């Protein structure tokens, strides 16, 4: 299976991205089209000097432009038609690859996907899902930022799409919760109150309202919210994890005994870090597009890029988009 | 100064609450009226057997009913007119105490406050602020749950009220950020886009948009958001902190070396825990009421209750409500 990787985007530059592609080729036998400045990418490949059998799985597709992290998504894709992300989605449109992975400007990636591929039939708003580590199994949160002002129908479709995606994580009959404040029915803002009956009357495995507290408990498979709330959840969690680690480090550095203790417990800390690291969970799938796309964190390591490429291949193998389409149609027919 | 403590509400029962009142009396010389079932409270006081000079600072005011955590706030205050929280706010209305502290049903506490005291002149919606620990100085987030559907004017007033409250934390000229997704002007949902100019044209020290990531950095003093978003921020932070601690513990328990290391680093962990513990920061002030009220977490320790009582006395001493009133009037006159 051929997957396009936007090899120019991300905070660290092409080297980690290419290394991720090579890992995906090595560990999963996937073919990767690196999209970006050909001479530059060729230099990095020469530097990394992969084994010839891996090199056979990698190709370069030239793109002359790059969309920067701080550019306005819609303006950027309009102006930079030969940007790496636009070229990558064009390869998908032409059937030359089966999925696109990018660690670049996520708004621009979504916009490029919608521009090149369009939406699946019946999808009002494509969205971005994210997989969070929890105490038990991972949880899928959707939307995490594509749609800041939502109507109940949008949240309902997020639930349908994220439920279909859950098969990539080997979850069957995923439970779905509606993120709000207070677990009782009828608690929340107007959007939540109007979304509740749509979910309740659907064929989804809807378990009712869940609270912010429940996100990391791992008692629900899919949590839906609008993209404004979802993005704040994502960012506040990242920010808290980072701040807490720094505060703990501060305190440990205050005494030699604590430092020594920390050194002894370091393997446990490393396992903990791996367990909560988003890199382990691949990227954030764009759901609702007529094609498969995955957004990675700008800071993604080569390990995270590898996992995202493998995740993309699983989405294709599991026919997630057909599933979304089928579920949406069957929900439509219930009404 | 006399402060009323709802001595019946909270997850742990009256003992911790009374112990908190005794600590406030001992450490800050504050007088506390314990409101609740008189014989029951008397039994607890006898059991705790405080020194006579402390006992002089404590009195009991009888209330025959209790509002439970899961009761509907507005129904509950309507039905239970002799509940501890209603009686406490009645004491404040009558001028017998200068503030109310409760660790009970926060919706009911807010509703009781509004019912008994009303709002400050010009306040559209009273709200609840919360103080979060961060890498640097604490940050005040408002609203954290009283108002789930807000208009721009409400968020603007939260900014004014939380800025006034910041004097309790010895902050002068507090910086104010608007919680949204993406730091650039114009990023966010419709509510945020419409609130931005109100803050920009005010005399507040408005620094623009902040992201979820910024909450725990400590680079801003006041962050405003609607109560739906704020409550989810609060709950997701609590949930993540709890889940992360459990995951870390799991990993540490896997090896004797890590266990030993942890024991050696334990004082550092304890300092860390104290630094992030909400108990250290007292309770959540109800802002916009024509009187001073503080809500504590249901799980509050006696230490947290003590801090909340002291915080209430500081709000009174600093004339926070007069300040709110003055700021709102002067902002009105600017328009």
Automatic annotation (TrEMBL), chains A, B:
Its EC number is 2.3.1.274. It is found in: Cytoplasm. GO terms for biological process: fatty acid biosynthetic process; phospholipid biosynthetic process. InterPro entries: FA_synthesis (IPR003664), Phospholipid_synth_PlsX-like (IPR012281). GO terms for cellular component: cytoplasm. Its main location: cytoplasm. It catalyses: a fatty acyl-[ACP] + phosphate = an acyl phosphate + holo-[ACP]. Keywords: Acyltransferase, Cytoplasm, Lipid biosynthesis, Lipid metabolism, Phospholipid biosynthesis, Phospholipid metabolism, Transferase. The keyword Ribosomal protein does not apply. GO terms for molecular function: phosphate:acyl-[acyl carrier protein] acyltransferase activity. Pathway: Lipid metabolism; phospholipid metabolism. The keyword Chaperone does not apply. Belongs to the PlsX family. Homodimer. Probably interacts with PlsY. Catalyzes the reversible formation of acyl-phosphate (acyl-PO(4)) from acyl-[acyl-carrier-protein] (acyl-ACP). This enzyme utilizes acyl-ACP as fatty acyl donor, but not acyl-CoA. This is Phosphate acyltransferase. It comes from Desulfomarina profundi.
